[in-house]
Prior knowledge:
With 283 residues, the protein is an alpha+beta fold.
Amino acid sequence: MERRISMRLPGVDVTMEERKSKTNYIIQAVSHALDLLEQFRDDVDELGVTELSRRLKLHKNNVFRLLATLESRNYIQQNPLTGNYRLGLKNLELGQTMIRQMGLLRQARPILEQLSGCNNETAYIAVLKESYVVYMDVVESRHAVRVVPRIGAWLPAHCTAAGKVQLAYLLETGTDLPLPDPLPSCTGSTIVDRDELIRQLRTVAERGYAVDDEEKDAGVRCVSAPIRDYTAKVIGAVSISGPVSRLCDKRLNSELIPQIKHAAAEISRRLGYRFGNGFGTAV
Length: 283
């Protein structure tokens, strides 16, 4: 007789074999619903049933049932003018709840406001997710011409300052870099050679900051420094972005780099990090 091992869940008794992988417990319909919600990303505001069916590789009837279920819970709403679907307000509600609950953003917000206030450039927090950085919070510049990363936007890590400063930490700790092959090019300045990128990441680790010099968007520069938690792990990055015309070399070196390193140090301190002599140490 096969021995059965209890996981102490009421009414659930599973075998040792079943415990080996949580994939055994995935509910396909829930997975499809989440896949559907994730189609509304970046610049995608609305999608119709046909397009969703094509993207998800599901029959239109299945897509319609998913939409109807999500709409009943306010995760999806239908535009009465176009008949297409868009995200509902429930997503915003959950997102705001997550932001309030995240210690990083609670501690970082006042520092972001101070940082943007003293240099009048856009300041933001970004975290690494696989081969992308995700923008979590932003304080805008008051300049008419400014760079404003959208909260929730996903950008390639290898060509952003916030991404490179976090990739540098992974490289320093011997962690495999989550980079696509080949590296996609966004501008003529994007580093697409993996060896060249690794050389730059080693320099980033030594300096404690990274610069995006028109690598993601032409005409835009960015400088970023790593944020550590109480375990000394890099959990995000704080950044300043602006047009090249304002973020010149002289200003970067004399003003913005010291500011961004100080801001990263202060957020890290608030998260319990005590500075040593390694990567990300404030000077």
